[in-house]
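Design request, tokens follow.
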């Protein structure tokens, strides 16, 4: 009898525990979709508390197979490229016990996430984690979307060597879909034997063309491999979460005979999704797009990156297949959503007066403009006279005066690219909204220019500014005081001068 009562009590206790945890668990609001992220390794959460995601993250050299049959000694997070996939709901605390087992100092920047300044991974807010060293990153993820993490020290070489990982944050208002795929797009320069090139250790050996434009190659990676493939379902809604981690390469994605429904970007879903035959995604950007494949079972539907001309003085990118897709089965009766209710982000009012000018230009070390790369505290990339230097308002790196804004202030910035290269403006710690540009999309005349739909509703952390054009953005510096970097996200540019900071002061 007594035993039975104990059992009843135990049962009641466990019921209460289950009920309590199902109340506090921050689960997505809808039935799980079929998640097919080829080759992506999921991170495991060490903490049973559903509100906390805790993991060990080790940066280390590991042998990986990026292309079949070839071994590459990559720099990795936990031994894989991409690193472990962190998949959480809005409101989760991430606790990352980081250890650096690389032969070089590093940090982790949590790209796109709003977090306390001390957790941002920039060298102005933390000392680099030396070889053998550790650091604990801990912060709450506040916004839904696809984000990523990568080093903020020698990011030109460290990201190229394989140091990047993805964070997917689910929020309310996610669309109903049948299948979902995270695709991390990259390119990598491999030697014939699969090894990474020696110029990663020695900037002097990097060809001038790549010093000028950034590292790129024709070896494309999807989720860390050259030969990924995906089986899709005709008639079903597939959701593609796209991230470009390449240093320079743009992906101009299309599926012939199909139209994407673009439902979001870096830090926002769109209340009014738009249709696009092509999605142009620059370094560090993310796009979120739906597609209903159509065709008979067995039909091949490659995901292609169409030709793209980055800049006049740069070799155009030819069209290439990014991912083999094939129809494996079919369903019917699905329709793409025309609206996503409740996800709209209020537009930030543009403050009166002239925007703060951020002028991107390129010069030459020791050249007539007199540009020099100021000595930085940690490992500057020492070039020789004649090497390119990238400048903001005619100054490089630590010589650029920080932009000071008051906590709570709204500020507009006009990013003007007067150089012959393409650049990607990226801001840490705050989203921005695009309010103006002289480079607007036209399907025939300007297929690579900025989509107006982004101006109307996007919240972004990275935006392309093409040679000769400008983009004006607005941000509200409402919460986290501190030192927040802004820079070009082509790391060959940022590590050679095109990086400075916004100081948010009380
Ligand atoms: Cu993804 Cu400061 O960078
Ligand atoms: Cu750039």
């Amino acid at each position: 009898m007594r035993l039975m009562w104990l059992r009843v009590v135990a049962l009641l206790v466990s019921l209460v525990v289950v009920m309590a945890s199902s109340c506090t668990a921050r689960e997505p609001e809808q039935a799980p979709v079929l998640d097919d992220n080829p080759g992506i390794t999921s991170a495991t959460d060490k903490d049973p508390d559903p509100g906390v995601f805790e993991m060990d993250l080790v940066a280390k050299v590991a042998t990986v197979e990026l292309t079949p049959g070839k071994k590459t000694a990559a720099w990795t997070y936990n031994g894989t490229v991409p690193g472990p996939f962190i998949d959480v709901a809005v409101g989760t605390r991430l606790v990352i016990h980081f250890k650096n087992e690389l032969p070089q100092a590093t940090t982790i920047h949590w790209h796109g996430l709003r977090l306390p300044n001390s957790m941002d991974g920039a060298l102005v807010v933390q000392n680099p984690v030396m070889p053998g060293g550790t650091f604990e990153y801990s912060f709450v993820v506040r916004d839904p979307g696809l984000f990523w993490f990568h080093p903020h020290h020698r990011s030109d070489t460290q990201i190229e060597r394989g140091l990047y990982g993805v964070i997917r944050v689910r929020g309310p208002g996610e669309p109903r879909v049948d299948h979902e795929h995270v695709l991390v797009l990259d390119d990598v320069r491999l030697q014939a034997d699969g090894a990474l090139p020696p110029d990663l250790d020695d900037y002097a050996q990097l060809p001038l063309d790549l010093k000028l434009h950034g590292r790129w190659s024709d070896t494309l990676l999807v989720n860390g491999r050259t030969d990924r493939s995906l089986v899709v379902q005709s008639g079903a809604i597939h959701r593609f979460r796209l991230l470009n981690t390449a240093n320079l390469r743009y992906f101009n994605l299309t599926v012939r005979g199909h139209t994407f429904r673009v439902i979001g970007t870096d830090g926002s879903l769109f209340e009014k999704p738009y249709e696009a035959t092509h999605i142009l995604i620059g370094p560090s950007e993310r796009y979120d797009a739906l597609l209903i494949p159509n065709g008979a079972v067995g039909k091949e539907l490659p995901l292609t990156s169409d030709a793209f001309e980055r800049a006049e003085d740069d070799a155009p990118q030819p069209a290439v297949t990014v991912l083999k897709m094939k129809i494996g089965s079919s369903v019917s009766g699905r329709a793409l959503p025309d609206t996503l209710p409740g996800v709209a982000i209020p537009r930030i009012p543009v403050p009166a007066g002239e925007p703060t000018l951020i002028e991107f230009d390129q010069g030459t070390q020791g050249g007539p403009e007199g540009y020099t790369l100021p000595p930085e505290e940690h490992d500057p990339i020492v070039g020789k006279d004649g090497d390119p230097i990238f400048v903001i308002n005619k100054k490089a790196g630590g010589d650029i005066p920080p932009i000071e804004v008051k906590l709570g202030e709204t500020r507009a910035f006009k990013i003007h690219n007067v150089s012959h290269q393409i650049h990607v403006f990226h801001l840490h710690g705050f989203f921005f909204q695009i309010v103006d540009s002289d480079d607007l999309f036209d399907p025939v005349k300007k297929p690579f220019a900025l989509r107006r739909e982004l101006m109307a509703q996007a919240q972004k952390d990275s935006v392309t500014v093409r040679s000769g054009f400008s983009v004006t953005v607005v941000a509200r510096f409402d919460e986290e005081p501190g030192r927040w970097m802004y820079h070009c996200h082509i790391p060959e540019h940022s590590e050679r001068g095109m990086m400075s900071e916004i100081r948010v002061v009380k």
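Comment from the thread starter after seeing the answer: thanks! The CA atoms of residues 46 and 497 lie 40 Å apart.
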